[in-house]
Design a protein that fits this description.
Oligomer: single chain
Distance between the termini: 35 Å
Largest sheet: 5 strands, antiparallel
Number of helices: 3
Order of helices and strands: EEHEEEHH
Strand order of the largest sheet: 2-1-3-4-5
CATH superfamily: P-loop containing nucleotide triphosphate hydrolases
CATH architecture: 3-Layer(aba) Sandwich
Shape: globular
Radius of gyration: 15 Å
Length: 124
C-alpha cells in the first residue's frame, strides 16, 4: 500500500500518523490528527473525557477504521485513506492496548497487568 501526498516516515518514527480523521454517526471525533512517536521515547496522550484519546489508540491498531489519513507502524503503512494492512494479526502482535477500566488484575502491578497479554501469547 503506497501512502498519498507528503507522507514521510523517518527511520526513528515507530508510529507515524498524518491527517487522521474519524467520526461516529456524523460526530467528528478525530479531526486531521498528526503524530510522530519517536523510538526510545515516552509519549503521553492527554485530554478531556470524550476528547478522542481512546479512539486514536483504537485506530492505531485498527480496532476502529479511520475515515481518512495515514498510519505507519515501524515504517510500514498500515492504513492509507481507506486501504488497510492485510495482516492484522501480525500488526496486533506489535501494537498493544490496555483498556482504561476493566480486565485489570487488582493483585498485580501496572507493569504486570500490561505484560499479562504478552506472556499469555508466548505460553508463559
Amino acid at each position: 500500500m503506497t501512502p498519498k501526498g507528503d507522507f514521510t516516515v523517518l527511520a526513528a518514527d515507530v508510529v507515524r500518523v498524518d491527517g487522521l480523521s474519524k467520526s461516529f454517526h456524523g460526530r467528528l471525533v478525530l479531526d486531521d490528527v498528526s503524530l510522530a512517536v519517536r523510538q526510545a521515547t515516552i509519549t503521553a496522550i492527554i485530554g478531556s473525557s470524550g476528547g478522542g484519546k481512546t479512539t486514536l489508540l483504537r485506530c492505531l491498531n485498527l480496532l476502529e477504521r479511520p475515515d481518512s489519513g495515514t498510519i505507519a507502524v515501524d515504517g510500514v503503512p498500515i492504513f492509507a485513506d481507506g486501504a488497510v494492512c492485510t495482516d492484522l494479526p501480525r500488526l496486533r502482535r506489535s501494537v498493544g492496548m490496555v483498556f482504561q477500566r476493566f480486565n485489570l488484575f487488582p493483585h498485580r502491578t501496572a507493569l504486570e497487568n500490561v505484560m499479562a497479554g504478552a506472556a499469555r501469547r508466548r505460553g508463559a
